[in-house]
Each structure stands twice: as C-alpha cells, then as structure tokens.
C-alpha cells in the first residue's frame, strides 16, 4: 500500500478486508478439528474462542492506528530494533508457512473439482496457478485495492452462503456425534490462536485507518463473523460428511465451474494478505528494499514450500504461532496500555534484554500449560501470566537495555 490508501480506510473497508481474509479453506479445516465435541458444544466454543481471540487481535490494530506503524515495527517499543529483527524473522517464517498452507489447501480443493470437470489431476499445477495469481495481485499494485477487495468479499459471501446451505440443511447435524477426541480447552485454543496468527499483521492495515473506532469495529466484526462462520461450516461438514474439504463439498453439490472460481478467489484473497505482510515485515530488517518486489519473492517462496513440504497438517503449526506471539504481544500490550513507560519507538534502544527474558519465560510457559489442557486453553493464561511477570519485574529489569552510545537514553 502507498499514499493512495494512507489514512483513509474506513470501518467498512476493514469489515470487508477481514471478512474476506477469514473466508478461507484453512479456517474451514481448522473448524473441522473440533468436531469430536459435537455441534452444540462446538458452536459455543467457536463463539467464545473467537470473541477472545478477535478482541486480542484488535488491540494490536489500535497500536497501528495510533502510532501509524506496521505491526512488527511496533515491537520495537518494548524490545528494541534487534528484538524486532528476531520477531520479523519469526513472523516471515509463519507467514510463508501460512502462504504454503493456503496454496496447497486451495490446490487440493481445486484439483478435486478439476478431476470431476475435466479429468485433470495435478495438485502441483493448481498450487502454482494460485501462487501466480497471488503474485499478479501484488504486482498490480494498490490502486483500486479497496474496490477490488470489496467486490471479492461479495463474491466470497456467495461461497459462505452456498457452503452453509449444503451443510446446515441436514437436521441430523445437531444430533450426530463425530469420532475422535478433543477437549474443551484444546478446542478453545484452536479458536483463539487463529485470530492470534493475524496479530503480527493487523497493524500493517490499521495504520492506514481514518479513525481508531472504524479500525476496531470494522476489523472485529468482519473477522469475528466470517471466521466463526467458516469454523461452523468446517465443524458441520466434519460431523456430517467426515470430509471438510471445500472442493469435495461443492463437487457433491454439482456447482461445477462456479465452485472452481469461488475457491480460487477465496484462496487468493487470504493468501495475498499473508504474502503482502511478509514483505512488509521483511522491510523492518532491510528497509531499503522495494516492498512490492519483496512481497512477490515471498509469494514465490511460499508456492515452492507448498509444493515441496507436506504442510497441510498444521495443528502443531498453530500452537507454535501461539507460543511465540502470545507472550510477545502480552509484553507489548502491557508496556503500551498498562505501564505506559514507552508509548513510541525508542530510536536508540537496540535491545531490551529484560523484555526478551520475560518473553522466553512466556514461550516456555505456553508449552508447559498446553500439556495441562486447561479449560481456557493456553493463550489466555500465558498472556495473563506473562503480563503479570512483566508488571512485577519491569522496574528491576528496566536498566537491562543495550542503547546506542551516540544518542541519549529515551525517557518515557
């Protein structure tokens, strides 16, 4: 994005943006994982988990709007420039991972349809097509981005309605039990961690918001509604058909070529955001590079990973995201909203070792708590505990900072 979109995105723009981002095959597949709970309990978990996760997500968006900086760059507030470089690398890796997940998932779904329509069977071919379309969207630039995205969301709404009709028209859904094991806490965590995975990205967009209220309301409503809806579709499909693949569902409904186009659109719109933000994040490390060029390179790398690496099984991938970014943003939010000792980037702060140590403690806590299978999942307890540790220790660790000697220390 450039000056064409600077500071003029409204609540409706964010609603459409995040609605389109959440309508994805990955969301449907993740919703299918909680099917062992049954539809009624699963429905409750989806609403509760998304309410918590999306609330955490929009907090990151608030910082972006107030400071007019990308998400990963905002981590310099608490961790310094070198700390933000580490998180930039981790975020680029997770975004490339998401790009690969989306591309291979979309490729598999489209391949099911192409086999039915034309007897053409090549998941790699369709994965490459999706990757190319994402790169072409980036190359086309941000001109008309809002209009294109709004039109795409309306078309994606058709996908949501069609899938919902196919899944929910069967009354057996509300009584049939799926096989497998899944605890309430485990299911809740899968709902919280999905919006959490967007946390290192949201400020990349809300920094262009016309108002903070519009950024918060549009982002929350758009993502909460669409993501919850997609989870419910995946939940229902897994219970009824024992196969949540979008391509299989739409092929069974004889939607033919329309299904092909809708799935391509759904995959490209979400993957575009992953690839674009991967490029923005990388610029935090090498700001002199061209944003568009870097984003295209990220798209190419994600496409290659999708073809080479069997990444479609990503439950552990989601937990890894939670372990890294839950304590990270717990510290940032504590600094920014509670302690308020630093509310802007400190140019001479290279790294805050105290904040880094607390973050590492938070990562360890995540993997410890996930084994106990708490009813609230792991993200919420870890964020609370990390925040408490930081609040109790920040005065003691305040001087554990490495500053550039050529500049004076910043006084918050």
TrEMBL record:
Family annotation (Gene3D superfamilies): Hydantoin permease
MF terms (GO), sorted A to Z: cytosine transmembrane transporter activity
Assigned keywords, A-Z: Membrane, Transmembrane, Transmembrane helix
A Pfam family assignment: Transp_cyt_pur
Topological type in the membrane: Multi-pass membrane protein
GO cellular component: plasma membrane
Main subcellular location of this protein, as a coarse class: membrane
InterPro entries (alphabetical): CodB (IPR030191), Pur-cyt_permease (IPR001248), Thia_CytX (IPR012732)
Compartments (UniProt record): Membrane
Superkingdom of source: Bacteria
Family from the record: Belongs to the purine-cytosine permease (2.A.39) family.
Protein name per Swiss-Prot or TrEMBL: Putative hydroxymethylpyrimidine transporter CytX
Species per Swiss-Prot/TrEMBL record: Fonticella tunisiensis
